[in-house]
Design goal:
Blueprint: H1 5-12, E1 17-23, H2 29-40, E2 43-51, E3 65-70, H3 76-92, H4 94-99, E4 102-106, H5 108-121, E5 126-131, H6 143-156, E6 161-164, H7 167-174, E7 184-186, E8 191-192, H8 193-196, H9 202-206, E9 219-226, H10 230-243, E10 247-254, H11 259-266, E11 272-274, H12 284-288, E12 293-295, H13 312-319, E13 323-327, H14 331-339, E14 343-345, H15 350-359, H16 362-374, H17 376-380, E15 381-382, H18 384-396
Parallel strand pairs: 1-2, 1-4, 2-3, 4-5, 5-6, 6-7, 8-15, 9-10, 9-12, 10-11, 12-13, 13-14
Helix pairs in contact: 1-18, 3-5, 10-11, 10-15
Length: about 400
């Protein structure tokens, strides 16, 4: 893989002006990627971030950052007092908001206080609503869902641009539930070239992978990232039990939401290995190195967010030549089929996965792997041209 330094230099050499970025957790890997991307595009960025104590408690942001305090995870009632304190800190930094060309906020609650701070400080900055995913209750038919959609509707009427990580969010939620027809931009979860540096070559990655041979070496399927989907846990566990030494599942990441279920589901299954958490980008070659296939399905919220998202693992695995496995009806399957990157299973079941693995052909796998390598620069890595498109969309909004 060639060095991406030329793209980086062309991005950082163009000065854009000042911008403000509001985030819910400065320790989150995607928050770090977003801020570094904006800075690499020439934005003079000022960050205002909360912190969540569950991870990386000692981490200090690499960007110019103002800490807004500690917030609770998955609990808006506990979060409101912290948000109000954060709003006061934002207002106290009114000069930063007034001098910014845009205020970009990640997630609903951050955008709400960003909108209020703009009014209270008299800032003329454009409001940019950055939506990485959509929480389950926004799809709800009850009072809670209606209240939160109503509050979000206020935001949507004030913003200049809606930024999403997947086109599925526009079609499946913002148009369908919010009747939103304003300007939007799809900022995918690509790997940031500047952050990745010199990536391993296909030859280096392929050296880790062994051709499956019965009784000697199995097909290796990886599942990395946020490991919270009970349906995926069951499918992979049942497949591992049924196929034995013919397949190995290698799991890395965070056991969130259902850690006990995760442990119970995979306990005692010899051909399932869990290697703990990992760091991006440092550990990507290690965790994807031996894998042939990449489990990219998600059924954590099957009636809402899950069918609409394009998860990080699609881009991480694809860039390193791991062939994606997806499920028909999900946005990830549309993406994989559109670009001919991998395989779309007909349903979310162990039977479908077992049938695929039993019929998997080595030559077909090699061809799919090569297509992923060939798409590395265009589909999986974010460079100066991607970021310039984002800034152009902000300017045009």
């Amino acid at each position: 893989m060639a060095n991406n330094s030329n793209a980086q230099e062309s991005a950082s050499s163009v000065r854009y002006g000042k911008g403000v970025f509001l985030g819910h957790d400065c320790t989150h890997v995607d928050a770090r990627k977003r801020t570094l991307a904006l800075e690499s595009a020439g934005v003079e960025l000022k960050g205002f971030f909360f912190r969540r104590e569950k991870n990386n408690a000692d981490y200090q942001p690499e960007w110019d950052n103002v800490e807004l305090g500690i917030t609770a995870d998955n609990n808006y009632a506990k979060r409101v007092p912290a948000l109000l304190k954060g709003l006061k800190i934002l207002v106290d930094h009114k000069q930063d908001l007034r001098s910014a060309k845009f205020i970009m906020a990640r997630n609903f609650d951050m955008m709400f206080i960003g909108m209020l701070a703009k009014v209270l400080t008299g800032s003329k900055a454009k409001l940019i609503y950055d939506v990485p995913d959509i929480q389950e209750f926004f799809f709800g038919k009850g009072l809670k869902g209606k209240v939160f959609r109503g509050l979000e509707k206020i935001i949507l009427n004030q913003i200049s641009l809606l930024v999403v990580t997947s086109p599925g969010f526009i079609r499946g939620y913002f148009e369908k539930y919010q009747n939103y027809n304003g300007k939007h931009f799809v900022w995918e979860n690509k790997l940031l070239s500047e952050q990745m540096g010199d990536m391993p070559t296909p030859e280096q990655m392929n050296a880790h992978r062994v051709k499956p041979e019965e009784g000697v070496s199995p097909w290796v399927v990886c599942w990395h990232g946020t490991l919270r989907c009970p349906a995926s846990m069951k499918i992979l566990a049942d497949t591992a039990k049924a196929m034995g030494s013919k397949v190995k599942f290698y799991l890395r990441g965070k056991q969130t939401i259902y850690p006990e279920l995760f442990e119970q589901t995979f306990s005692g299954i010899e051909n399932v290995e869990f290697g703990g958490e990992y760091r991006t980008p440092d550990d990507l070659e290690e965790i994807y190195g031996s894998a042939h296939f990449n489990w990219c399905a998600d059924y954590f919220d099957p009636e809402g967010n899950s069918p609409l998202l394009l998860p990080n693992r699609v881009y991480q695995g694809g860039a390193l030549g791991v062939v994606p496995l997806t499920i028909s009806g999900q946005e990830s399957a549309n993406y994989v089929a559109q670009h001919n990157l991998g395989y779309v299973l007909p349903e979310a079941s162990s039977e479908a996965l077992i049938a695929f693995l039993k019929s998997a052909d080595w030559d077909e796998y090699l061809a799919a792997r090569d297509r992923n390598y060939q798409a590395r620069d265009t589909l999986f890595l974010e460079d100066a041209s991607d970021l310039r498109q984002l800034l152009n969309a902000i300017d045009a909004s």
